[in-house]
Amino acid sequence: xxxxxxxxxxHPRRIAQSGALIEGSLVVAKMSNLCDVLSDSDGILNVGxxxxxxxxxxxxxxxDIDGSVWLTCQLCLKPMQHSLNHHFDLLVxxxxxxxxxxxxxxxxxxxxxxxxxxxKVVEEEVLLSLPLAPVHETKLMCQExxxxxxxxxxxxxxRWNDQEQPMIQPFTNLKALLSGHKTDDSQQ
Length: 188
Ligand SMILES: [Zn+2]
Known about the structure:
Elements: E1 9-10, H1 12-18, E2 22-27, H2 32-35, E3 44-53, E4 59-72, E5 79-93, H3 96-101, E6 107-110, E7 116-117, H4 118-129, H5 151-162, H6 170-187
Parallel strand pairs: 5-6
Antiparallel strand pairs: 1-7, 2-3, 3-4, 4-5
The protein binds zinc ion (ZN).
Residues 73, 75-76, 78, 135-136, 142, 144 line the site of zinc ion.
């Protein structure tokens, strides 16, 4: 994973004019509000930021956040790695009043002096993107999963499912043989 630090601030209006793409990494441990909800502060997030102007000369900030954070599975309460692949679009406004007037489908961001603190914005976006009740994705990882099957059985099940032929029940014949034997035995 690329670890080139991001600049601390970004000037949306300036970036929108130049068309520049700002890329770099943020250390999860430095975002204290985010760390408050994580089970572990380990990790790095790759961030890409750009800005553009729309027909009404409003400035939009576009961002992508990639990486992973550690959450707590709400079923088994064990740490789980959560992949982040979050895209966001923010509409730059100057005042609270303007923010309230922003039409649907736009997330307003109040920006004074054409300066945003990148880490703050990224941290807020990551917090918004996190699931409310994270749970392990597969039953192999989570012992409290509803359909949890002990590891060995899971592997057996997978082996059977991986076979392309319809499932053969190997013991059907054996049973017939055994009962056949029994019949033979009883006849003898
Ligand atoms: Zn779990």
